[in-house]
Design goal:
Distance between the termini: 44 Å
Order of helices and strands: HHHHHEHEHHEEEEHEEE
Radius of gyration: 19 Å
Strand content: 15-25%
Oligomer: single chain
Strand order of the largest sheet: 5-2-1-6-7-9-8
Number of strands: 9
Helix content: 25-40%
Shape: globular
């Protein structure tokens, strides 16, 4: 499907109004690719058909879900998780915000790491944009095709624990053990509209790549405002902070971990 710039702007405005996510601030190229993929998944043939779909709450939720990019690896970038484990080791309590969860790969990776560290008092808030996404996270079954790379990444964590301590094989694939979500609270909604609360750690990896400069800057400022003194923001290792208006400073520059 070919979409003009005017089509993209119209679609972005409609979706932003109905779903509550600022899609108008996304990178044009990224947004176009996601919209085309979403249209193909839903069988949309005309831009005009989108408006009626957005008026249907169930369809709107599915659209929000399809606009996110699901993870494909547990413990993606093992050096990041090793660095994070070193930073967090010895802490007795920790509050974490994950403002834009997709299918749970990042969340379960974090919960395994926190289990390995053995922090006594943990609060993790996972934010999703759709009910479908939340269901996928809670019932996650990892396809066998991802198992080899997941195991390899896990071994590179050098944790001294076993993969089977956290994951079990089922007839539908590999499933995380249910106790990993014991300290997780889920909320639904666009993170930019959430009330500002303070956290020790925010994990927002590989999301800023989806944004245009305006939304990138606003998002980083919003995330920085949600950190406790000494708190940390983790972004993707290939991402950079474009804004200079926050008080974030590199803590682990090679792993894109910043501290206030």
């Amino acid at each position: 499907m070919f979409l003009t710039i005017n089509d993209i702007r119209e679609i972005g405005a409609q979706m932003s109004a109905k779903i509550g996510v600022d899609y108008t601030g996304y990178s044009i190229n990224f947004f176009r690719r996601r919209v085309i993929a979403m249209f193909e998944e839903l069988g949309v043939r005309k831009v005009q058909d989108l408006e009626s779909m957005l008026d249907d709450a169930v369809k709107a939720d599915e659209i929000a879900h399809l606009m996110t990019i699901p993870g494909t690896e547990m413990f993606r970038d093992p050096s990041f998780w090793r660095a994070l484990r070193k930073i967090l080791s010895g802490k007795q309590s920790l509050t974490v915000w994950m403002p834009n969860l997709t299918n749970g790969f990042e969340l379960y990776s974090l919960m395994v790491l926190l289990n390995q560290i053995g922090i006594n008092n943990i609060k993790v808030v996972g934010q999703v944009q759709s009910d479908i996404t939340l269901k996928d996270i809670k019932t996650l079954s990892i396809p066998e095709k991802y198992d080899e790379v997941n195991r390899s990444n896990f071994e590179r964590l050098e944790s001294g624990t076993k993969y089977e301590d956290y994951f079990e094989s089922t007839e539908n694939g590999i499933k995380p053990k249910s106790n990993l979500l014991e300290n997780v609270t889920f909320v639904k909604g666009w993170f930019m509209d959430s009330a500002v609360e303070k956290y020790d750690l925010i994990i927002f990896r590989n999301i800023l790549l989806e944004y245009g400069p305006r939304l990138h800057e606003k998002a980083v400022e919003r995330l920085a405002a949600s950190l406790n003194d000494g708190g940390m923001l983790a972004i993707g290792i290939k991402e950079q902070l474009l804004t200079k208006t926050t008080n974030l400073k590199p803590h682990e520059a090679g792993e894109s971990i910043y501290r206030v």
